[in-house]
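Deliverable D5.2: sample structural annotation.
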Amino acid sequence: MFLQRFRNVRSFRGRSLSSSATSRVREFKVVLDGQTLYIEKPLAEALGWNPGTSTEGVSLRLSGWEPKFFAITPTGTDSDLLARATVESSKNPRVQQVLSYLKQSDSEP
């Protein structure tokens, strides 16, 4: 529901935000072993990895909004700013009211 309703939201504090002009939603299989998340190469590339960064790595941030919204983004990117802004706004009572209203209107026939 969140993605459907807010997919076109593209600004935060006057700055244009977008994960990518050509981005699309994709699903990947991942494996968690302890605190290590193993991912496939296409997912690594989508998060900014390339063969030139293999030993250096890519800095990522895990942001979360209980109970369902968690995002892993490359640190310092527009996607990171959007995820962090979403988590921060989740604490705003007015935003909570709007989301409750949207959930209610989704469940109505």
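Annotation notes: The chain is about 35% helix and 20% strand. Residues 1-21 have pLDDT under 50 and may be disordered.
The annotation will be released with the project's public dataset once the embargo ends.
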